[in-house]
Amino acid sequence: MVGLRTLRVAAMTAGSVGGLSGVAYTLLNTQSRQARTIIGVPRDLPFNADGVYRPDGTGPVALSTTDVLTFAMFGDSSAAGLGAESPARLPGVVLARALAEESGRPVRLVTHAVSGSRTTGLIAQIDAALLDPPDVAVVMIGGNDVTARMRIGTSAALLAEQVRRLTDAGTGVVVGTCPDLGTIRPIPQPLRSLAQHWSRALARAQTRELSRTEATSVPLAAIVGPWFRDRPDEFFSPDRFHPNGDGYALAAGVMLAPLCAAGGVWKSSR
Question: Which of 136, 142, 204, 206 can pair with 263 through a Cys bridge, CB separation 3.0 to 4.6 Å?
C-alpha cells in the first residue's frame, strides 16, 4: 500500500523548507530503509472471488438473472483485499454476502480495485465500470497518494470528480476515506508521525470534497484506526502492513449500513 522510499523523500522535501538538519535527514533515511526491510515487497496478488452471492450465503456462483444487485469495489490494495487469508475474507466478499442477506437478492461482486493504485488510478477503473454501471459501489483510496506526496487538495478533488461519474450514472457510492498510516508500526518514529499527519489531513479533505457529492463518506481512520493502533497483532496481516481478514471485516462492518442505504436496501437517513 505504501512506498516507504517515496515517503522518506517527501519527508526530506517537507523538512528542507524548515531547514532539516543533516542528523534528521540521516535518521529519516535510516528509518525508511529499516521499514522497507521489515515490510518487504508484496509478491502476492490479492485473491479474486468475483461472482454472484446468494442470500443463503452460497457463492460465488455463475448465475444469470435480471434480479441481481451489482456491487463494485474500487481503489487500492485495501479495496482489493491484499493480506486477506482466503477469498472468503476479502472485504468485497464480506460486503457482497451481507448485502445479499440484507436485500434478499443475489449480489454480483465485480472488483475493479488494483493494489498500489493512487487516486489517479480511479479514472481507468471507473472507465471500465461505466460500460455497465453497478447499482452500488465502495471506494477505498488514499494511502498511496500520501506516500507519493500528491497535493492533498488535488487528490481529494480528483476523488470527488471520479465519484460524481459513478453517481451521475445512478450508482450509490460509499467511500472509505484514507486510513491512518500512523498505525503501521514498522514505520518508525518520527517518519510514522509524518505519515499519520498527512494521511489524516487527506482523510479530512476527502470528507469535505465528498460532502459536495451524493456519496457517503466513512472516516475509517477515526472509526477503525484505534483498533489497528491498539491491537495490531489481531488486525494486521503477517507483513504488519496490510490488514488481515479480521481487519477487513472490521472495516466492512462500519461500511455495511451506509452501503445498504446507498443501494436502496435500507432507507437512508440523509
Answer: 136
Q: Annotated catalytic, 242?
A: yes
- Tell the burial category of 22 from Cβ atoms under 10 Å away from its Cβ (0-12, 13-18, 19+): exposed
Predicted confidence band of residue 255 (pLDDT cuts 50, 70, 90)? very high
pLDDT tier at 64 (50, 70, 90 boundaries)? low
Q: For residue 205, give every residue at least 6 positions away whose Cβ sits within 8 Å of its Cβ, in sequence order, or none.
A: 152, 153, 155, 156
Mean of the per-residue pLDDT values for the chain?
85
| Helix-then-strand count for the chain, H and E | 12, 6
Mark whether 135 is an active-site residue: no
Distance between CA atoms of residues 254 and 245, nearest Å: 15
pLDDT tens digits along 10-39 = 444 443 333 334 444 454 455 555 555 544
Distance CA 159, CA 66 (A): 31
Catalytic residue among 112, 115, 135, 242: 242
Q: C-alpha angle with apex 57: 67 to 224, nearest 5 degrees?
A: 105
In this predicted structure, the answer to whether residue 225 has a pLDDT above a threshold of 80 is yes
Residue 47 grid coordinates: 485473491
Out of 135, 145, 180, 239, the active site residue is 239
Instruction: Indicate the DSSP class of residue 234.
Output: H
- Examine the residue annotation and report whether 115 is marked as an active-site residue of this protein: no
Is residue 208 predicted with pLDDT exceeding 70? yes
User: Position of cell 472509505?
Assistant: 176
Looking at the DSSP bridge assignments, the partners of residue 140 are: 75, 176
36-40, Cβ contacts within 8 angstroms, sequence gap of 24 or more: 36/4, 36/5, 38/186, 38/240, 39/4, 39/186, 39/239, 39/240, 39/241, 40/239
Pick the catalytic residue: 32, 77, 117, 155?
Answer: 77
